[in-house]
Amino acid sequence: MHVWERRASQRINVQLHVVEKLEDSLYFQRTANISAGGLFLEGTMPHPPGTKVKLRFQLPGDDQSIEVDGEIAAPSKEDELGMGVRFIGLSDRDRERIENFIQQTVGLPFGR
Prior knowledge:
With 112 residues, this protein is mainly beta.
């Protein structure tokens, strides 16, 4: 089963810029999708499953960044370039911000 299909929250395709910190290294990534449970970083060599990272990103139309710890999920496909990251300890406020963004985006007419 695909890792992202096991989560309970709705996922949407969206490209966001993400700053990922792993130990003393910074990576500038881009999402393919996001849910209140995590996100998928596309076009990047994945870290090993279980690797802990720190993420910072901003939702469109929001002037405050979300900062959250994450854990790299097992890849859905061995040859897939990218990695799923599960949020760890996401605050209730930030979870609500993501859920509201998803609901607003899903509610938009097609083509917007």
